[in-house]
């Protein structure tokens, strides 16, 4: 087992474990990061079915209560950070040859890295924009609110999301960000299949390419549908309806009262 570089310097942690890290990196792009994106975009697209549908999905998610942050960090934020960290490590050591070889696969390779960078900064912005980074009143009051961040309130889900997105600039950023995430996921799924030896022959890779492209188009439509759906929401009417649903569900005991998750609190 090689323990030193040709220069005599000891191998770095990444060099010693590169094989394993590359596979864990590709796997994390599908499970759980990619699957979470599919669920998240699908849940957002439920706004097309009306305020009640979207609000009830958010109620269901937040019924997890105090364990929800643990689940978010374990299955969402930490895997995203792991995938992003080693994505930048691989990006640092990669070389693009599209100027010499104009093959489609080489352009996809380059786009994979470009969309990865866009996706990382978009996700960071999205979390800040909708939720803020710290779920504490002082952070929201002193930092988030003055900067127009932490706009989303789970118990006024449709109205707050609509107000946050009903801006041409913000919506444009979301369109670019979501499409970048979708391309990175779909093309990454194709390369993951090669990395893990799922499709190794040219014929299998061609069919896999068609499948991943089709899946990417479907997910892109879902993501864009969510953005369009929030643009169509009458925020004032939605807020009134959300408050009615909240009061009814607190009364029947299906959710716990939590004023901090409501608009204006």
Topology:
Layout lengths: L12 H4 L1 H13 L2 H13 L5 H12 L5 H26 L10 H27 L6 H8 L12 H9 L2 H28 L6 H30 L3 H17 L14
How would you explain this protein's 3D organization?
This protein is an all-alpha fold. The protein has one domain: 3 helical TM bundles of succinate and fumarate reductases (Up-down Bundle), CATH 1.20.1300. Helices cover 71% and strands 0% of the residues. The N and C termini lie far apart (60 Å).
Portion of residues within helices: over 70%
What sequence of helices (H) and strands (E) makes up the elements?
HHHHHHHHHHH
Contiguous low-pLDDT stretches (5 residues minimum) are: none
Secondary structure category = mainly alpha
Briefly note the CATH topology name. 3 helical TM bundles of succinate and fumarate reductases
Number of domains: 1
Counted by DSSP, the helix tally is 11
Shape: globular
- Percent range for β-strand residues: under 5%
CATH class call: Mainly Alpha
Q: Give the distance, in angstroms, between the N- and C-terminal Cα atoms.
A: 60 Å
List its traits.
265 residues; 71% helix; 3 helical TM bundles of succinate and fumarate reductases; globular; mainly alpha
